[in-house]
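Lab manual, section 2.4: Encoding a predicted structure.

Procedure: take the sequence of the chain (241 residues), apply the prediction step described in section 2.3, and record the output as structure tokens. A sample record is shown.
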Amino acid sequence: MNLTDRQAQILKTIIEEYTSTAEPVGSITLEKKYNLGVSPATIRNEMVTLTETGFLLQPHTSAGRTPTPMALKYYVRELIKERELSAAEEVAVKEKVWDQRFEVEKFLHQVTRVLAETTSDLAIACTSNGNVYHAGYAYILDNPEFYDIDVAREVLSLIDEFSNLNAIFTKASGNETVHVLVGDDLDSKWFQSLGLVFIDFKTPQLSGSLGVIGPSRLDYPQLIPVIRYFGSLVNDVSKNW
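Recorded output:
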């Protein structure tokens, strides 16, 4: 579905507010915090339309709305403006992994750890020879989506199972360099509120995927360029293997 410019602006604002707060977003909040240039009644009407068309969800009896997986994927595809890493940020990342560049295992362990530190998310890598690397468990506990012990348990179980994790990574399709899977894409009732952002890499020795898993309200404008850079770094360093 194509959204009007006004609907797209309202949806973008709701998603960015929800990313920041993890709370349903109401029309009053939009009116007070953002200069949308339309009346509160118009905002409410557009939110109703966005709900009816599957972009927003009204949880329980709350007056606020949350974005659906469909909305988040539309946001990533159509609305975000990526915040590229600075040269200084790229150099800082490279310095943290450079000493391990000649040894595949050590390098992928370190890359995953640094990715977790950089994004404050759970970082995971999965290679074609069946190895799984992960780091940043503590970060997921900062997010309300993981306060549900069943969700946290399922995620921690997933990252130890190569076959299940690889099955999710291989679900991605399309020509995007960086893949985004949200909600139903992750094939589990426990993962409805989660998102996975990753990039595939292919080296002379092995191929695989590298990315992060976290709430579906991940900071995509910042995260996607980070994942892209880490992927290019793995491909560059692999020339030493």
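Check your result against the sample. The chain has two domains: 5-79, 87-240.
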